[in-house]
Design brief:
Elements: H1 3-16, E1 22-29, E2 35-40, H2 43-56, H3 65-71, E3 76-84, H4 93-114
Antiparallel strand pairs: 1-2, 1-3
């Protein structure tokens, strides 16, 4: 294996073991106040996805599509609501599963608190 390939492999491995900020966020429509509340194992990645959709004026979130078409992507803002702080075990599979469970519980709490359903938001009401 060449030095470049070995270095790329090391960097890729290090990247996959790097903690990414996890948490709860909302995408808020500044025109009508409706929100979408969601969780992400990578908050920065979620923010980047919204920026990409705004730059390209496309939206893959079906719940938002009608308002996106009406108001445009610039009318939607990304806001972090909560973040999970890492322990030393975040890089292994058991640690990631633990964080997924914490994110689900945290998301349920925020959905209960904000009630982003119907006229107030884009989330589908849990069954």
């Amino acid at each position: 294996m060449s030095l470049d390939k070995q270095r790329k492999k090391e960097l890729a491995s290090k990247y996959t073991q790097t903690f990414r900020r996890m948490g709860i966020y909302q995408i808020r429509n500044t025109e009508n106040g409706k929100i979408l509340v969601a969780s992400a194992m990578d908050l920065d990645g979620a923010r980047n996805r919204l920026a990409f959709t705004q730059q390209n004026n496309v939206n893959s979130m079906s719940a938002l599509q009608q308002d996106w078409n009406r108001y445009g992507g610039a009318s939607f803002v990304f806001e972090e609501l909560d973040e999970i702080k890492p322990d030393e075990d975040f890089a292994d599979a058991a640690g990631l599963q633990k964080y997924k469970g914490e994110l689900e519980a945290l998301l349920d709490m925020w959905l209960e608190k904000l009630q982003p359903f119907g006229d107030q938001g884009y989330n589908k009401r849990p069954k």
